[in-house]
Amino acid sequence: MPIDPTIVGTRTPEFQTTAERGRLRSFAQATGQPDPAYTDLDAARLAGYRDLLIPATFLFCLEMDNPDRHRFLADLGVDMRAILHGGQRFHYHAQAYAGDTLTFWTEVTDVYDKKGGALDFIVRDTHVSRDGTPIATLTSTIVVRDPKAAA
């Protein structure tokens, strides 16, 4: 089923989530962050930070806290079994810390197809802010396979 390009510019509702120290420590350890400012509060404060640093890609994990994260694709009629991760990039504006309550909202920025419509691509920017101050823009590409189209 082709993705209607008129969805470009549509936005999801905002949601908020808080970065919890325990989750941050686990993520930092799992991803091999060598700087103790990611796992040790005293080390973070000694380095001049107000709390533990949020590792770069952890914002993607926090985005998954959205209770309606699958609604966008469901509203498009996309079968979740037909999606693939097509790419991801991060643009940072400011540092985020443990204890921050962050606001997320997502906008569709592009839709295109390849392989004669067998693959539809949806590009989305998720904007992350803290008290109105931009923290990061997370760009993700979702690939939707059309099992009926010739590949």
Automatic annotation (TrEMBL):
Gene3D superfamilies: Hotdog Thioesterase. Residues 8-137 form the FAS1-like dehydratase domain. InterPro entries: FAS1-like_DH_region, HadA-like, HotDog_dom_sf. Pfam families: FAS1_DH_region. This is Acyl dehydratase. It comes from Rhodococcus koreensis.
